[in-house]
Amino acid sequence: MKKYSGLFFFFSLFVFPFAGFAQSAVKPPKSEAMEPVAIIMFTIMLLLIFAIIVLSGVVFTTYDLYKEKIKKAANNAIPLLVVALMLLSFSAQAQESQNVVSSGPKLIGGLSQTSFYLMLSAIVLEMIIVIFLVRTFLLFSGLKKEKKVTAEATERKKKDAFKWLEKLNNTKSVDAETEAKVNLGHDYDGIGELDNPTPPWWQWGFVISVIFAGVYLYTHHVSHSAPTQLQELAIANEKADEQQKAYLASSANKIDENTVTYLSDAADLAEGKSIFTAVCAACHRADGGGIVGPNLTDEYWLHGGGIKNIFKTIKYGVPEKGMKSWKDDYSPKKIAQLASYIHSIKGSNPPAPKEPQGEKYIEETEPAAK
To answer: What architecture (CATH level 2) is domain 266-360?
Structure first.
């Protein structure tokens, strides 16, 4: 009866998956079973089924040798696999029915995805069973024996673990008599110095170092085809300066009334003066003495005389007094240059200045030079 249950399992492996496949093959206009891919996969499955039947017969003949050992595992495994195959075939049928209702299912080699993957799964499962049966036969027949780890084998394995180190250093373990012959008589805290050769890896490392030194000397100091360390430092510093300039150029327009500082560079002050002459002189006079606008050279200020106050006033303007905002006309960098120039003409004492306006402003800290 047990033999028949085994044959029933292998028969179900072939029948149950194809129950859904055969049913789905009837519904499309063209049967999937006539596709070349289906014929090839079907042939592979038949060959594997034949191999399983032959191997199962051989295994059953040696079953009695290990009957008690595998009885429980076999009785539990076969029904579970059969149920799994049944569920696989039923799910395939349900999905195939859904594919018939849907329009235009994707095909693989002329087969629906469900049929293709179902047949592929069956082939993989059959191959696993074949491998399992072969291994079981080898175990039952005694051709494959379990390895027994002995104490001697364990000790040998421990010794073999250090052989690679001996090969690397070209050294060998020696007995006490041989060790006495190669002992140089130098004792360091109980550690004797032996006349061992220098390890090959050290010798080759030394040779390579000498060759590298020769190549380095020629390329860096004779042919000058490569830069020296000082030249590399100069190149790195030059590159760093270029990156710094690029960063400052990109961050110049990030200046605002909170971060602006006094620009003492002559080029910045000259640019600020040209802007002042073009747009500010009409109200404040070319020398800053004031006409319609207030005097910018004395100590009295309507909106503060610090560099940040001047920048803010230029940026946002004073619309109620007729001064427009210049933030849309000039970049933050330009406004900072203009504010720095106005800050620089304090105390210049132009002729016939306008009377003081506002409150006397006392600079708390000197403007930071940049």
So the answer is: Orthogonal Bundle (1.10)
